[in-house]
Amino acid sequence: MRPASESELSEIILGAQALHIQGGGTRSVGHAVGEVLDTSGLSGIELYEPGALTLVARSGTPLAEIEALLASERQRLAFEVPDMRALLGRQGVSTIGGVVASNASGPRRVQVGACRDALLGVRFVDGRGDVIKNGGRVMKNVTGYDLVKLMAGSKGALGVLSEISFKVQAMPEASVALVAERDVPQGLADLRAALGSPYDISGAAWAQGRAMIRLEGMAGSVAYRAGKLQDLLGFKQAEADWAAIRDVTAFAARHGAVWKLSVKPTEAAALIHRLELEAICDWGGGLVWLLDPAGTADVRAAVAGFGHATLMRTIPGMIQPTFQPEAPAVASLTAGLREKFDPRGVFNPGMMG
């Protein structure tokens, strides 16, 4: 099913028993079942005001179309959307609705926040077929919920996005990478020191024995901050492939399960040492990607108490839930939200398994 309008989308939802919500199918994980609802027919940029740094698009609009339009005005989506197709072995075209539904965010998150922090508003259809708009006149009383934050990262479990509005960002005048050969403990310690400094870092990552820092902005400011950090940490200016960090390119063509961990940055180095798995660290170690060739590492036990783990890519014979099992209080809250927005259980049943 591929609705071309919000009214068609509402009718489909009202008549459905179980729907697997899908945009371009390029980044979804989990085990949702049901008839596929393809949102790519809800496509088109409805408003773009470069002077106001504002863009409004329908949810099925290809991400590439939006990025090309913004680039023509030297603007961008600040949160640096990852491309997961190579890592997950997917084809297709990424849509802006899928980006929001997964809260997809790259290395610049340390400076500007995640996708949800760039959202200004949403329109979506809930499990009753009602159209809901965040801000202004609403078609249903949802007072008390921050719908923008709620829908970002909800993975289609609460409603089907139909329209999204963003604040966008001007491209910087200059960008510089500082790089140093470091082992994991020293590299992550240096990245934390850089992030704790007053020098406004827009990327901090460790991969394959190299610690990397990114600085962006006005040329004079970038040069000043780079000099200060070089003096502080002993890094040198060099090339750094931030797209490879963003897209976890080093693991894409290699055999093995891939885990995405969110942990306390101060715990990342010890965790990697205990698990003895190859790692890529982003956001100063707050995000850790692990490659588990055999699929046997007890990753969730290793992060217990200071983080959580998502199994992004599995291998044959591996039996693990995709998402971290929720604590009882969180599970109760999640169930309450789903009951509120999808009382019939139509959207992505089985997704969290």
Structure description:
The chain is an alpha+beta fold and 353 residues long. It folds into 3 domains: 165 residues, Uridine Diphospho-n-acetylenolpyruvylglucosamine Reductase, domain 3 (2-Layer Sandwich), CATH 3.30.465; 73 residues, Alpha-Beta Plaits (2-Layer Sandwich); 63 residues, Alpha-Beta Plaits, CATH 3.30.70. It is 30% helix and 25% strand. It contains 14 helices and 17 strands. It has an 8-stranded antiparallel beta sheet. A hairpin with a 4-residue loop joins strand 3 and strand 4. About 2% of the residues have low confidence.
Structurally, the number of domains stands at 3
- Using the 3D structure, state the CATH architecture of the largest domain: 2-Layer Sandwich
Counted beta strands: 17
Oligomer: single chain
Helix content: 25-40%
Query: What is the 3D form?
Result: globular
Q: What is the radius of gyration computed over CA atoms, rounded to a whole number of angstroms?
A: 21 Å
